[in-house]
Structures are given as C-alpha cells and as structure tokens.
Amino acid sequence: MTATVPPPPVLQPGGRLLTAASDTAVPRRRGRLRSRTVAVVLVAVTVVAHLVFRTDGAADSSDAAAFRFFDSVRDWVDANRDTSPVFLYGLNYLRLGVRLLVDGVHAALTGLGFAGLVAAVAAIGAVLAGWRTGLLALGGFLAFGVLGLWEQSVDTLVLTVSAVLLSVLIGVPLGILAARVRWVGATLRPVLDVMQIMPTFAYLAPMTLLFLIGEPAAVIATMIYAVPATIRITALGIGEVSPTAVEAATALGSTRWQLLSKVRLPMARTTIALAVNQTIMLALSMVVITALIDAPGLGQNIVSALQRVNVGAAFDAGLAIVILAVVLDRITTNAARRTRVHRTDQQRRWRWIGVGLALVAIVLISAIKINPEDLPGYSFAAPVNDLVGWIELHWYDATEGLKNGISAGVLDPLETVLVTTPWWLFVAVVAAFGTLISGWRAAVIAAPAAAGIAGLGLWQHSMQTLATVLVAIVLTMVLGVAIGVFCARHDRLAAGIRPLLDAAQTMPSFVYLLPAVALFGASRFTAIVAAVIFAVPPVVRLVERGLRDVPPTVVEAALSAGSTPRQLLWKVQLPMARGGLLLAANQGIVMVLAMVVVGGLVGAGALGYDVVAGFSQRELFGQGLAAGLAIVLLGIVLDRLTQGFHHSKGPRR
C-alpha cells in the first residue's frame, strides 16, 4: 500500500505559509474571530465590573485566621520539640543524620588539605571528563585561594555535595517509579510543580521551624529545592528507553530487576548524568541563599556585602560561585557525553590504570602542606567599587528618570487597578480568561488558587506583588525576545554572548540585587531590575533555540518567495517557534516571581518583605508563612495559565 505524500509548504508573496491543510483555513479563521469577539466582550465586562464594584484598597489584616493558624503550629512545635514522637523518633534523627553527612563530607574534603583537594578535583575532571576539564578544575580551585575565599568555597562545596547526594539517593528511585508506575507519576507531578514554582525564600521559614538554623536545615532546604529536577529528568530518561530493547530483553527471559539494572539504567545513564548536572546547579544556587539561616560559605560574604552595599566584595564572592558552578558543570556535562563512547577492553584497562595512578598522586600530594593564604592574592573589590561609583555619579539623572518614569507611569497605575479589584472579580476574571486562552483544565486549577490568595488575608500585598511581577515579565520578554532574535540571526553574537549567559545563570539570585541597589537605590523598581537581569538569560536561550529549530526548508521557501527579513521573522519564524516562545514566557514568569520575592531585602515590600520578616522576626512567623503560601498560589495561577496556553495553542507534534 503506497503512502500519500503531502505537497510541500508554499509561501504566498506576502509571506503567509500555506500547506495541504489550507482547506481548513476558513473554519480556523472563524474560530479565531469568535475567540477574539469573546475576548473583547470579556474585557469590556471586566472594565465595567471594576468601575462599578471597585474597593478602596484597604490594608491587609494583621491578625488573619491564616496567621493565627501558622503561629499556633509554631507554638506547638516549640512546645513539643523535645517530647513529641514526631521529633524524638523522626525529625530529630533526620537532623542528626544530615549533620553526620555534612560532617563526613567536610572531614573528607578538608582532610585532603589545599594541595590534595585541588589535585583530587583536577584528577576527577581529567578521568571523568578529559584533560581539558581537568586543567579547568585545577585553575578554578587555585583561583579560590588567589581570591582569598578558600575556606568559604570549601564550605559551599560541602553543603552542595551533601544536598546533591541526598537528592540523587531520593530522586533517582522516585524518578524510576514515576516512569514505571503510572499512578506514582500522576501523584508526583502536581507536587513537583508546586516545589518548582515555590520561590527559594519560601523554603527557609518552615525549615528553620522544623530543623532550627544551621547546616542541617540548609542542606534539607537545598535538597527539597533541587530534587524535583532529579526526579523529572530521571523519569524522562527511563521513559525514553527503546521499547524494542526492552521487548528483546524480556523475550530472553530477563526479570524486572535485570531489565532495570542491565537495560533501562545503562541506556538512560546519559540522561541520569544530566539530572545530576541540573541538580548540582540548582543546589549551588540554593546553598548560597541559605546563608540567611546561618549556613556557612560564600553566601555569608554576599549577605554581608549586601548589608553594606559593597558591590566589589560581592563581586569576589559571586565570581567564586561562578567558578565553582562552571567547574562542576563542565565535569558532569563532559562526563555525561563520554558515557556515550563505547570503549574496547584495552581502553577500559588503561582507564583503570589512570584511575589508580591518580589516586596514588592524590595521596602523595595530600602530604604536601600548602597554606592557601600564602598564595599571591588579588581582589576585584576596589576596581569594581570605583566603576560603580563612577556610574552612580554620571548616570544618576538617567537612572532616576527611568525609575520614576516606569514607577509613576506603569507600576503605580497597574498596582492601583489590581489592589482596588474585589477578590471575587479577580477570581472570575482568572476563570473566564483561563478558560478562553488555556482551556477549562487550567482554569479549574488557576481559579481556586486565586481564591486561596484572598483567603490568606494578604490580598493587597499579593496584588502589589502581582503588579511588580507583571511589569518585570513584560520587560523581561521584550529584552529576551529581542536579544534571542539577534542571537538566532547572528552566530558570532550568539557565540560571544553565550559565556555571559552561562555566568548569569550560575549566579545566585540575590547577587543581582547589589548592582540594582547601587544604580537605583532601595525601591520596588530595584527588585524589577534585578528580576529582569535574573530572568532574561533563560528567555534568550529558549527564544534562540526556538527560532533555530524552524526547519531550514521553510526558511529557504520563504526567502525564495521574496520575503523580506522582517516578513520572514514575523510571518514564518515567530509563528513556527510559538511553542518555544510560550515556554520562554513560562520560565520567565517563574524566575521573575522568585526574584521579586528576593527583592523584599531591598525595599520591594509586599509579599517579599512579609516572607523575609517571617523567618527573621518570631512575632511575624505566621504572616511570613502565609505570604510564602500566597506566592506559591500566585505562581500556580501564572504558571497554569501560560502552560495551558502553551498546550492549547502551541504547535502539535
């Protein structure tokens, strides 16, 4: 039976893409017209309802029921920490176990000494990822001593390794179960969604309540933040194993355990290595933030620099974090690539000989006592502070004009509209527009989440945060899409900007607060600027990837039909890359929301301030925990709407 091959796509002179399905264009056009008509009617009804029912924007209650409930939970925990079986036989032993793990990792790393640890990391990089990666690891760890941040860097590495070990031990088995048992995957999916939407700060208050401040709470919070990536990517790798290979192994009489250990895991090891890589990156970003709950490491340097608005000191610590992230990333990434190479028996034998020689060299070098403080030191603090001072002096009028213009012209009016909107009208609008643009399934989740925000007693602060998030998202998408388009069109620009994007994505979130504070002072706009800088890199990557994935044949057809570069972009590339653009918007929303909360440290107010005050002031614990939950619900609303729009409007495969 001969298959029918559809004719190739044809472009009209105007740039519109026509295919064999063009006979369905009229019904689709009618459907779009109906959708636009419904959208216009909804907008008109919403405007009229807001004008009729708007409120005076009264302040939030300081004694809401949710606050009292969370305060009562705190009081119960404090009263029963030493008597309740939950703590005596559960949480206290968990805290002790994590403490023993951290102490063991710390003893192993510091026991090697400066020379031994540098040699060990270089050897691991060379054996697992190649000699170039080994040299990179060698130079990177020597740089910690040159910057005068050796002890802090090792402390950060200890917490990161401890959290990654726990994440892998828990996440890989759960990922395998999620891939193999349908109900486990269905149960984990919404939990992982919430864990990934929740901003990093929201983890700190409950962790300090259950595990007190210090390293155990920091490691557990980091593990909870990083383990969703481990579970998701492991499940993806196990699920993508070739069914043909599984059927062949089953036909040969393999048991389930043999299928898992000898077929699924070996064939998914590259993806699992990617899961470990992403877990390390997420853990490193979270470990730095846990300095706010007394975790040691480079985060303490950044928090101290933030308190003193010392951009130069923060630059040194941030540079050390970037170096550590790049070294760990290159080792795991290149090691994952090398797992695809099939080696002969002789190559394996030589590799084991190399491992043995590396171990002997590490032991010998560890006996050499070198004090990292004796290395020639260098700090970027002075030149960076001089540059910041020059910018503050010469750019003051421009930065103040930009801040005041956007605040007065965009942020304040939007905040007024949202704050004076009754909660029931907001929920109705979310349900109506959610159904229209994303489908009823997304609306069923988003509308109750919006109602839950109102039930927490933080409506005004939630709407103020939403206004800040929306302004930051618009700025992020404008910059991200523009830069992504330029990178997709110019290979040299993409290659030149890639290291900057790599460095930007490895920086901890609140490092970006320092240049923003130096330029704009402590204000809501400062949080917006920091959020835009933080969220633009992934948006640029996704937009560039989406445009580069447009089939070259379609681009050639458009050019041969006489399309100009503008027509090619607007009528061919952007429509066909819509899925990537929507994914970029979704990721931008999640990252902006997380960063706006961090902005509570520099005067952004609203929910960010509530969360920060909640874990720093005992009397505000209930309000801070409620604010963290409000942020999660707000993130669910935005995430469901954008993800639902992606699934309902994005391209089908």
UniProtKB/TrEMBL annotation:
Pfam families: BPD_transp_1
Membrane topology: Multi-pass membrane protein
Main location: membrane
PROSITE patterns the record matches: ABC_TM1
Provenance organism: Paractinoplanes hotanensis
Family to which this protein belongs: Belongs to the binding-protein-dependent transport system permease family.
Transmembrane segments: 37-53, 105-127, 134-150, 156-179, 200-227, 272-293, 313-331, 352-370, 417-437, 466-488, 509-536, 588-608, 620-638
UniProt KW keywords: Cell membrane, Membrane, Transmembrane, Transmembrane helix, Transport
Compartments, as annotated in UniProt: Cell membrane; Membrane
Name assigned to this protein: ABC transporter permease subunit
InterPro entries per record: MetI-like, MetI-like_sf
Positions of the ABC transmembrane type-1 domain: 153-332, 462-642
Gene3D superfamilies found in the cross-reference section: MetI-like (1.10.3720.10)
